[in-house]
Amino acid sequence: MFLPMTGIDANMTFQNPEHPLPPGQLDAAANDIVSPQYFRTMQIPVLQGREFTDADDVHSPPVIIVNEAFARRFFPGESALGKKIRPGGSSDANGKPTWPQIVGVVGDTRRNSTQFAMRPEMYLPSGQAPNWCCMLSVVRTSVDPQSLEPAVRRVVASMDPQIPVTDMHTMRDLIAIEMKLPRFAVVLLGAFAGLALLLAIVGLYGVMTYSVTRRTRDIGVQLALGAQRRAVLAMILRDAGLLVGIGMGIGMAGTIASASVLQAILFATAPRDPLVLTAVCGVMGAAGLLAAYLPAMRAAGIDPMRALRAE
Prior knowledge:
It contains nine helices and seven strands; from the N terminus they run ββαββαβββααααααα. With 311 residues, it is of the alpha/beta class. It is elongated, with a radius of gyration of 32 Å.
């Protein structure tokens, strides 16, 4: 069994007689071996058909359950229930090919925290794979999961004292472990983005302050000739807006060019999402104008006579 959010899974090829492929080509899907009550324990909905039961053993006809993505991809426009496929070249004890029948369709699950599209998946019953190793046990409870650890160990020991119980985790633990690297990448990028925004504000403030200082006499002459102070304020902010616009244009081009790199660390968000790009541009524009506002106010407050005498 490969639990979701562990980052571990396996693919298996299969034959689909209703949609055959050219010789040498086989479809493939993720596969898992589960026991009865697994879907109920994991709260994976059974959308069509049934889940596995204790009657699904080596003496009963082979069965299989697929997820919704599997049914949608390999049986488009039709019901997958009752269809027969042959996963992994399966055969019975006599070496005769077996064709498990699809008896259920369940909801999709994410195998890891950064999985974007739902993957086709097949579930085989553990009762029909008695030699399968490395099975995992899943326990669902309404109390603190950590409090059940001694009880779980006792139950396993009563079944077989030779079976070790190791790596007990809650699903929250597994999700936290799986999210550790993406979360670190987001924090790191967020820190660099905050630093870049701060540097942009400081840099623009410095540039506009220097520009106002250099243009003190020109601004004084304009004010002496009757220019309105709000017109001077608008002029300085317009110059700042031009610089911010050029910077955002360069940044937008870099973002689009690096979209393939960003795709690997984004979840449920496209690297060229218009809403996100618009929001970023809005924040940058507001921050840039805010940085330029103080120098602009200083320019609008210049005393024309003092400015002319200073020259």
